[in-house]
Write the structure tokens for this entry.
Amino acid sequence: MANTQAMTTSFMGELMTATHNFGVAPTRGTSAVDSFKAALYLTTATYNAATTAYSATGEVSGTGYTAGGVAVTMGTVPTATNSSTTAGVAFVTPSASITYTTVTLATAFDAVLLYNSTQSNKAVSVHTFGSQTVTAGTFTLTMPSNTTTTALIRLATT
Amino acid sequence: MALVTTTKGEMDESLLEKKEGSVDNDNEYTTWVEYWLNGELVHRSAHVQLKKAVMFSAEAASFS
């Protein structure tokens, strides 16, 4: 037997459920899952890794679209899986497609911001795709399979 | 008779010109459908399946 330096995979999974707190805030008064939302952004916007929270700046607007976007269904709890003594993956994927129903978004958009509406709209991730418009139609983002290699959000060690 | 939601209300699909397309690359598989009436776009829907997840790497530092 030998010891192996590693970030524990359980820790990565627990980061996704706020088990560890190295700082001060936030104070959680409940163990309930947070609420997440998804907002769409114009091709002219600049949302990226530096984004810290939801903002209406650069967000799409149009008939049937409410600022802030739509709720994201997080029906599955995060999973943490070891792949070796030094590596593992913690991952989570929304359990349903993100759908904007009967909207008209005439100005091209190419990104969606996933953010935590329970925790002051703090940003989670930005996902980009080819430029789109929608006219009296539906825009759907289908989620990838929730696996170690395809989940929408993954924390990994190698 | 299939009805399509358009900028002019619900319309019979047979009255409209339908165009469909798709994009398949490393990042996404996207399909879209458009309905046109006399040269005017009256409906467009799109369906995006993301292929690339966002990945964060983590590391435990060594003492040196």
Remarks:
- Residues 100 and 139 of chain A are 5 Å apart (CA to CA).
- The helical segments of chain A are 9-15.
